[in-house]
Design brief:
CATH superfamily: Type I PLP-dependent aspartate aminotransferase-like (Major domain)
Radius of gyration: 20 Å
Subunit structure: Homodimer.
Keywords: Aminotransferase, Pyridoxal phosphate, Transferase
Strand content: 5-15%
CATH topology: Aspartate Aminotransferase, domain 2
Strand order of the largest sheet: 1-2-3-4
Oligomer: single chain
CATH class: Alpha Beta
GO molecular function: L-alanine:2-oxoglutarate aminotransferase activity; pyridoxal phosphate binding
Helix content: 25-40%
Number of strands: 6
Pathway: Amino-acid degradation; L-alanine degradation via transaminase pathway; pyruvate from L-alanine: step 1/1
Protein name: alanine transaminase
Length: 229
C-alpha cells in the first residue's frame, strides 16, 4: 500500500501548540505527491511535553473535518499533567461536545500501560478505541489485528486494571490513590527541576514541561563556548 509520512512543526513560542496554518502548509505540500487520509496528534506531547488546550483541540478537529482526515490521537500520557493551569482533554470528549457534524467524525484514540504513571514498559499492553468507524472497516481492522502478535496475558490483565482502577469505597482505593498521587507529584517536581536546570544554562532555553515525560530544550550556539560547557 502506498503511503507517505507528512511532517508538521509545533510552535515553540506558544508552548509547542499546534498551529492550523502550519497544518495547512504541510497538507498542501503533501498533496502534490500523495493523498493524505489521516492526522496523528500526540497529547500530552512526545517529545515536547506540551498539553494541548481545549481550544487548540477544537481547531484541530475543525481542520480535520474540513480536510476529511481521520484523527489518530495518541493520548497515552493523559494522567501525566504537571503544570499549573494545564488540563488534559480527550479528543473524544471534545469532539462529542462539539456536536454534529464534528461528533460524527472518525477517530481512533490510543492508550497504554507502558507509559504514564504506570510505566510498565515491558508488559507492552495497550488498546485503541475507534469511534464512528464503518462496520465493515471495523471488521477488517479486527481481522488484521487477530493475525498479529498480541501482548502476553499478564500485559492484557494489567491493561484491564488500568482502565478499571479501584473506586472510592473499595478496599484498595485509599492505597491506590495515595501511591498514584505520590508518583505524579514526584514526576512533577522532576519535570520542573529539569526545565529550570536547562534555563539556568547559558545558551539553552526550555519551555515548562506541562505533561508527559519529556523536556525539549532549544540549544543556541554561543561564541565563547569552552570545554567546561
Amino acid at each position: 500500500m502506498f503511503h507517505c509520512k507528512i511532517g508538521y512543526y509545533l510552535d515553540e513560542s506558544k508552548q509547542w501548540g499546534l498551529d492550523i496554518n502550519e497544518l495547512q502548509r504541510a497538507l498542501d505540500e503533501a498533496r502534490k505527491e500523495c493523498n493524505p487520509r489521516a492526522i496523528v496528534v500526540i497529547n500530552p506531547g512526545n517529545p515536547t511535553g506540551q498539553v494541548l488546550s481545549r481550544e487548540n483541540i477544537v481547531e484541530i478537529l475543525k481542520f480535520a473535518h474540513r480536510e476529511s482526515l481521520l484523527v489518530l490521537a495518541d493520548e497515552v500520557y493523559q494522567d501525566n499533567i504537571y503544570a499549573e493551569g494545564s488540563k488534559f482533554f480527550s479528543f473524544k470528549k471534545v469532539m462529542t461536545e462539539m456536536g454534529p457534524p464534528y461528533s460524527d467524525m472518525e477517530l481512533a484514540s490510543f492508550m497504554s500501560c507502558s507509559k504514564g504513571y504506570m510505566g510498565e514498559c515491558g508488559l507492552r499492553g495497550g488498546y485503541s478505541e475507534v469511534i464512528n468507524f464503518d462496520p465493515d472497516v471495523k471488521a477488517m481492522l479486527l481481522k488484521s489485528i487477530s493475525a498479529m502478535l498480541c501482548p502476553t496475558v499478564l500485559g492484557q490483565t494489567v491493561m484491564d486494571v488500568v482502565v478499571n482502577p479501584p473506586q472510592p469505597g473499595e478496599p484498595s482505593y485509599d492505597q491506590f490513590a495515595t501511591e498514584k498521587a505520590a508518583v505524579l507529584k514526584s514526576l512533577a517536581l522532576r519535570a520542573k527541576m529539569v526545565a529550570d536546570t536547562f534555563n539556568s544554562m547559558k545558551g539553552i532555553t526550555c519551555n515548562p514541561v506541562q505533561g508527559a515525560m519529556y523536556a525539549f530544550p532549544q540549544v543556541n550556539l554561543i561564541s565563547d563556548v569552552n570545554d567546561s560547557f
